[in-house]
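in:
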């Protein structure tokens, strides 16, 4: 009755205004299978191990090894201890998934993925990609924790493990390539908190063998758990970003596996209703092609960036440039660099506020300071793990150099890891000028670490908490991962 009454009322009004029924446009939702979101879910559910090329397998195994190594040394940090204590004191014991660097502790899968993610980023030593994010730390802890949770009779094979890991990396890369803004050093959201939960959810959905609809829902659930501001960079809270990305992505996949649903259009550009576009103002998504149509993984096109010392990636350019000046100074001086030699230090670097820190007061600020890393390399010839200890940060000679630093931001040096450079110009007391420049540091995806260098880094990190024999077994387990019937051999080395 109410509908009939309203209908009789509306029609005369429409006629009076000259509105014809044929002129009314009916908005239609796209068919579910035609959406960007659905294409991502389909990709996750249909991808198979045979779609991984030898190049992708090799590069992803290097990422797994490096990520485990930085997680193990990260388990010695204060922020990791705080996160672990919180999980142990606030949650009931759940002896399921292993924890980096703690042979006698296990946690629930979600908490283990959280603390291991915190460990991975606690020293800012983890891998970095372009567009800028830290992809492995958001994915590997979740895949490890979920593999621990699975019964012995259903452990994933090494290839299935690597497939899930690569799916998590791929989804992050694809999402970031939908935005030009994402290609630059971030200003608003920390990228691992945006794409990291999505990558973790995708990897876990693949490992759980979720269907395409469940996989899409896992991504949509993860989108509701994503995002953290850049203001917490260079603080103890920044490592929580990676821990939460790993944990919340795993939770999203587990919730989807139980039937929880979310927006079927979360990755699509829908006018007036922000989905994933909330994070990037210029977001322009494209469907992800089916793996059966010859999909090429982004990791095949672009290698990963690995850090030689634990600091923000941008620091590696100025450190290498300053190290080259150090060699010149040692050659003309008394065999070591003294602040008394130096009148002025000019750094030509990209404009990026959160890594412009003239006088850092903590290890976390020092890891995000152009000035600190340039002066450390100028003084010592290199930057190392030990460079960020309280004693090294407070050295009088280092403080003296910091007081002489100026910054310039040339227009041809954008805040973009793919095209930026670092230049260091030192004016000596006598008036001589020494210059060093780095366009591509050793470890960048255009100049990747050799396997020998990567393993040296892993050994140096892992041997801080593990005996050397176990470290070598870990190297072996990762190297043969794609040939293992199940991943228990790798998991046992971490236990």
């Amino acid at each position: 009755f109410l509908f009939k009454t309203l209908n009789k009322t509306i029609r005369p009004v429409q006629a009076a205004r000259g509105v014809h029924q044929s002129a009314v446009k009916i908005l239609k939702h796209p068919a579910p299978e035609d959406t960007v979101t659905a294409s991502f879910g389909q990709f996750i559910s249909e991808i198979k191990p045979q779609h991984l090329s030898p190049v992708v397998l090799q590069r992803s195994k290097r990422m797994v090894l490096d990520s485990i190594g930085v997680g193990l040394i990260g388990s010695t940090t204060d922020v990791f201890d705080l996160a672990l204590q919180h999980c142990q004191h606030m949650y009931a014991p759940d002896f399921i998934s292993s924890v980096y660097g703690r042979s006698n502790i296990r946690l629930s899968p979600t908490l283990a993925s959280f603390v291991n993610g915190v460990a991975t980023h606690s020293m800012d030593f983890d891998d970095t990609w372009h567009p800028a994010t830290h992809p492995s730390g958001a994915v590997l802890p979740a895949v490890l924790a979920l593999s621990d949770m699975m019964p012995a009779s259903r452990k994933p094979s090494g290839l299935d493990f690597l497939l899930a890991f690569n799916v998590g990396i791929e989804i992050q890369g694809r999402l970031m390539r939908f935005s030009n803004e994402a290609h630059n050093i971030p200003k608003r959201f920390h990228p691992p908190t945006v794409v990291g939960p999505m990558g973790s959810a995708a990897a876990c959905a693949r490992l759980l063998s979720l269907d395409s609809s469940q996989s899409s829902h896992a991504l949509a659930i993860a989108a509701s758990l994503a995002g953290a501001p850049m203001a917490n960079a260079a603080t103890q809270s920044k490592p929580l970003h990676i821990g939460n990305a790993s944990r919340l992505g795993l939770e999203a996949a587990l919730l989807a596996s139980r039937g929880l649903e979310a927006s079927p259009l979360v990755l699509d550009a829908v006018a007036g209703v922000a989905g994933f576009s909330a994070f990037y103002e210029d977001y322009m998504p494209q469907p992800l092609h089916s793996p059966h149509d010859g999909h090429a993984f982004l990791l095949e096109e672009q290698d990963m960036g690995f850090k030689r010392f634990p600091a923000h990636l941008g620091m590696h350019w100025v450190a290498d440039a300053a190290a080259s000046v150090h060699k010149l100074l040692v050659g003309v001086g008394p065999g070591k660099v003294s602040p008394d030699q130096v009148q002025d230090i000019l750094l030509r670097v990209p404009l990026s506020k959160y890594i412009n820190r003239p006088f850092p007061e903590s290890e976390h600020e020092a890891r995000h300071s152009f000035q600190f890393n340039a002066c450390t390399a100028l003084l010592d010839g290199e930057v190392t793990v030990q460079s960020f200890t309280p004693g090294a940060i407070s050295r009088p000679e280092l403080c003296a150099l910091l007081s002489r630093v100026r910054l310039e931001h040339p227009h041809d040096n954008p805040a973009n890891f793919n095209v930026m450079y670092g230049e260091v110009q030192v004016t000596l007391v006598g008036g001589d000028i020494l210059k060093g420049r780095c366009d591509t540091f050793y470890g960048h995806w255009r100049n990747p670490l050799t396997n020998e260098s990567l393993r040296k880094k892993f050994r140096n990190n892992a041997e801080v908490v593990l005996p050397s024999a176990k470290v070598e077994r870990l190297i072996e387990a990762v190297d043969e991962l794609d040939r293992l019937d199940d991943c228990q051999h790798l998991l046992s080395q971490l236990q």
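note: Residues 54-74 form the longest helix (21 residues).
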